[in-house]
Amino acid sequence: MASRTLLIPSFLDDHFPLLRRAFASARWQPVLLTQDQGLADLGLRYIHSDMCYPAVLVAGQILRALDSGQYDAHSCGVLIGQAGDECRGSCFIRILRRVLDRAGYPEVALVSLNVRGIDRQDALPLNPGMIGKALAAAVWGDTLAIARDQLRPLEARPGTVQALWQQWVDTLDQDLVRTPSHREILARCREITASFRAVETAERPVQDVAVVGEIYTKNCRLGNWNLRDYLAANGCRVHVGGLTWQALYYMDAHTLKGPPAHRAAYRIVQQAVGRIQKEMVDILRAAGFRTLPPLSQLKAEAAGLAPLNVTVADGWLIAAEAAGWAGQGCRKILCVQPFACLPGHIFGKGQYASLQRKLPHVRLVSVDYDASTGEGTVLSRVRMLLDETLPSF
Q1: Which pLDDT score is estimated for 240?
Q2: What is the pTM of this model?
Q3: How many angstroms separate the CA atoms of 49 and 346, rounded?
Q4: pLDDT digits 0-9 by tens, 193-234
């Protein structure tokens, strides 16, 4: 069949530029969407405001791209991830179908990305090559993001670190034309950390701020209103858990669910990914970068701090990451979530008060993002955290 364009909405800023290679095939040529103006207003024309904010933004970005005239709707598809759990995003593909039909794009295909066997008729076929490329993209994306975010407030010449990040993305994108080996993935990690360590830095005061919360809001500039850029510009070393932690959490949570064969498969993949994540963490720490412990260790250390039996949406990972960053010396933690994310409000925000009591030396500040929220409201909460002087312990 003729190759078609696969539109990929913004979701993981640090990983999708590399992950797109995993979605390429004779059938689909992936294109990352970059539209960022008026997305919420456009999305709200077709989606009720009670729907979660990420869904509104994703719908708006897809419609903005199709309305631009850059793409032939008759030869387009849209990639939509589905966790397959209690997150309402698991049903978003059906909502988006109605949105596209109402907006005059019934011919645009919807392609489901999931490992739970849902919406099989629309699913993107998975194969070993795709999985291998996705693993490399996740590890490299984590390594690049951790190195960049911790050096940006210290760079002697503004823009140097971001430019180096982009150079590596371009290089690694070409590496992903084929599936890299385990050894090649780790070799690139060593080269990446060495190149960032060679960046000229200047002595200046910085403060360490960790960001935890819902996956989209934590990782997408659209969902968090360019939070990482704002923090870096205000002298903060930003610490965010990477995609390998999120993926391993998902596998850990879902070994408890489904048929025995599926649970066994998750455990096998989890062990393999866990090994390479530990090696990545060792490389980053050897180069002087701060990271969360590997997920298995993070979970063990979170016992008594995080509700490890809660696996709905981002579940126990939110509190575990907060506790993990506190253990790494980050005493200021931003907890971000989108408004109208029901699991996020119940199982995310529901953990903060308990965690704050258990970690009195740390300050947790919760921030909600929504189309109806003013920028001043959000920035005032962020500034409240940045400007606070914490007592010594």
Answers
A1: 98
A2: 0.95
A3: 19
A4: 999 999 999 999 999 999 999 999 999 999 999 999 999 999
H or E element, residue 367: strand 363-369
Render pLDDT for 325-383 as a digit per residue (tens, 0 to 9).
Answer: 999 999 999 999 998 888 878 878 888 999 999 999 999 999 999 999 899 999 999 99
Contact 305, 359 (CB under 8 A): yes
Domain membership of residue 71 (yes or no) is: yes
Provide the phi-psi class of 340: left if phi over 0, else alpha when psi is between -120 and 50, else beta. left
Whether residues 304 and 214 fall in one domain: yes
In a domain, 254, yes or no: no
DSSP 80-103: EE---SSSGGGGHHHHHHHHHHHH
Question: Residue 113: beta bridge partners?
Answer: 81
63 Cβ neighbours under 8 A, 6+ residues apart = 42, 43, 46, 99, 100, 103, 105
Please write the tens of the pLDDT for every residue from 141-165: 999 999 999 999 999 999 999 999 9
Please report the DSSP string for 17-86 in residue order. HHHGGGG--SSEEEEE----SSHHHHHTTTS-TTS-HHHHHHHHHHHHHHHTTSS-GGGEEEEEE---SS
Axis-axis angle for helices 182-197, 260-286 (nearest 10): 30
Alpha helices in 198-334 (DSSP H): 215-219, 221-224, 227-233, 243-254, 260-286, 295-301, 315-327
User: For position 289, what pLDDT does the model report?
Assistant: 98
Residue 148 belongs to some domain of the structure: no
| Residue 330's CATH number | 3.40.50
CA 386 to chain centroid, in Å, comes to: 23
pLDDT at 115: 72
Number of domains into which the chain is organized: 2
Q: Give every CB contact of residue 220 below 8 A, 6+ residues apart in sequence.
A: 10, 11, 12, 13, 54
The rounded distance, in Å, linking the Cα atoms of 288 and 286 is 5
Q: What is the pLDDT of residue 85?
A: 67
Range of the structural domain that residue 333 is part of: 205-241+292-393
